[in-house]
Amino acid sequence: MREDNEPVSVPAYHELMWPTLLALRSLGGSGSIDEIYTKVAETEAMSDSLLAVLHGNGPQTEVGYRLHWARSYLKSGGALDNVKRGVWAVTDAGRDMTKDDVKAIPAKVRATPRTPRKKTSASTRGRTRNIDDLAIETEVSSDESFRSTDPQEWKDVLLEALLSMSPNAFERLCQRVLRESGFTKVEVTGRSGDGGIDGIGVLRMSLLSFQVFFQCKRYRGSVSSGSIRDFRGAMVGRTDKGLFITTGTFTPDAIREATRDGAPVLDLIDGDEFCDLLKNLDLGLSTEMVEAVTVDRHWFQSI
User: Fold this and answer.
1) Which residues are 140's β-sheet partners?
2) Is 249 within 8 Å of 61 (Cβ atoms)?
3) CATH top class, domain 13-111
4) For the stretch 75-95, what's the b/e string if a residue is b when 16 or more beta carbons lie within 10 angstroms of its beta carbon?
5) Cα–Cα distance for residue pair 33/151, rounded to 1 Å
6) Domain 167-280 listed as CATH 1.10.357.10
7) How high is the pLDDT of residue 171?
8) Would you tell me how many other CB atoms lie within 10 Å of the CB of residue 61?
9) What is the distance between the alpha carbons of residues 37 and 51, in angstroms, rounded to a whole number?
């Protein structure tokens, strides 16, 4: 039996590649990041203490971080495709891959020549983060803005910015996100002793409208099932709709508790999804469109 003070050993990213591929196969060939995370945690029998290990100072867990790289290598190796933001699918090649095929992917990816990167301007300073020589280019400008082509890179920086906000400012941000997502009459309450309920909003769906209670939790690490039960308990007799937003993640038990039979279903938004929401709403983030120019050699020869 493991002692409480014994260090927890998190599997390396390459050790998670095969479980990730198996998880997607068992999910029917495609799945969201959360579904992959939950399935791998279940099939690999990961303990709560292992799932609670943070990457650096958080808020992302080390398992989530390494699963990101596992998916990245599987995509580079032709086993997976990122068909939609946050949704991954097994390719035709990935369906036929064996464990040995997957094991060989990291070496093949590192041996593949990379396209030379465009030099950054004098007003920026380049940084790279490597895991076994898989490099991602980022830029930090003098006005404290941050630019990156890698989703995990900019999300890590964004989550740190969210965690540095005051609790009231973060609640105001969530209020704005809900308003711009279709909610009306969004009020931040934040009353102490109210079971973690931070606010109330009304979501209009065609001819129907629903009162939704929400909780906003700036958090490093994983939200437990106990927090979900407390939030639901505060809703009893007041509404059947609840939304839990966190900068961290949710444990598999918390996700199961949110959809438990016989209890009001709670919608969960973790840090990764919240980053995507801010990006889609252009709140504090901007996306650059790259111009591609095609030269028609035949046109010049035909003059």
Assistant:
1) 125, 146
2) yes
3) mainly alpha
4) bbbbbbbeeeeeebbbbeebe
5) 13
6) no
7) 85
8) 23
9) 10
Distance CA 134, CA 152 (A): 13
The closest alpha carbon to 283, from 187, 199, 175, belongs to: 175
Please give the Cα distance from 204 to 166 (Å, whole number): 30
206: amino acid identity, one letter? S
DSSP state letters, 92-137: HHHHH--HHHHHTHHHHHHHSPPPPPPPPPTTEEEEEEEETTEEEE
Domain range summary for the chain, segments of one domain joined by +: 13-111, 167-280
pLDDT: which is higher, 121 or 275: 275
On whether the CB atoms of residues 212 and 200 are closer than 8 A, the answer is yes
Give the pLDDT band of residue 245 (cuts 50, 70, 90). Answer: very high
Averaged pLDDT, 174-181: 86
Q: pLDDT > 90: what percent of the chain?
A: 43
